[in-house]
Specification:
0% strand
Length: 249
């Protein structure tokens, strides 16, 4: 067991718990940069770790009434299949190219998170949700796109999912946040399974990452309400951008 990895992930968990982000890109960056973990294994580990980090958040949001079960189930199931396929596509991408592609996706995530936290923060909660076939088709499309992105690049696709829920399905900001946590669970399971089947998932490394981040996140979350909202929003946007920078250093 690598105590240094657990301690590093403990520090990462403190940051993620404080900011309220999944942080898979941050985990990927640190594993590849400081511990020389091959990028495919780092992607597999970060994606699988989100199963555990998202579960408690999804339960909490559900109890608060912030989860749309219908859209969450459809997008999550389709997204799991997309993530499984994406993980297999990822194995054909050379490590150097995959590193740059993942970094690019993290930069884009930062931009989209800015759109989500700043531009769409005033979105009305009264936007109607599409019904019937339109709802099903829209949900399937969101699941396919976000699942493939998650599986290929090991990221949670949180901003992509949330923007899809708000702009396409008409969910409120709070509903989109809670539903996203639910959606990430099957996506992480699908992608993690795909990477495991290909031999990229290191179970011991996964255990070290999960132990460190879960303990750290629990402690970090205690400090969230003690800082201004503007600091949280800035940190949330800056984290994926900083993670992408670390990947290409």
């Amino acid at each position: 067991m690598h105590i240094s990895i657990i301690l590093t992930m403990l520090a990462v968990g403190l940051i993620l718990g404080f900011v309220g982000a999944g942080g898979s890109g941050f985990i990927i960056s640190l594993l590849t940069l400081f511990f020389n973990v091959p990028v495919h294994i780092a992607l597999a580990t970060a994606l699988a770790a989100m199963i555990f980090s998202s579960l408690s958040g999804a339960i909490s949001h559900y109890r608060e009434g912030n989860v749309s079960l219908k859209s969450g189930i459809i997008i999550g199931v389709v997204g799991a299949l997309g993530a499984w396929l994406g993980s297999h596509f990822s194995s054909f991408i050379p490590e150097e190219q995959l590193t740059w592609l993942t970094a690019s996706m993290l930069f884009l995530s930062g931009v989209l998170l800015w759109v989500r936290t700043v531009v769409l923060s005033r979105k009305s909660d009264n936007t109607p949700i599409p019904q019937g076939a339109h709802f099903v088709i829209a949900s399937i499309l969101i699941g396919v796109v976000t699942g493939l992105l998650s599986g290929m690049f090991g990221i949670g696709s949180t901003p992509f999912i949330q923007l899809g829920l708000m702009m396409i399905l008409g969910l409120s900001l709070h509903k989109s946040a809670g539903t996203t946590m639910l959606i990430i669970i099957p996506i992480a399971i699908g992608g993690g399974t795909g990477y495991y089947q290909q031999g990229f998932l290191d179970i011991q490394l996964l255990f070290e990452v999960v132990v460190g981040t879960m303990v750290g996140s629990y402690i970090g979350a205690k400090f969230t309400n003690r800082v201004p909202t503007s600091v949280l929003k800035t940190s949330l946007v800056a984290l994926p951008i900083f993670s992408g920078f670390l990947l290409i250093v």
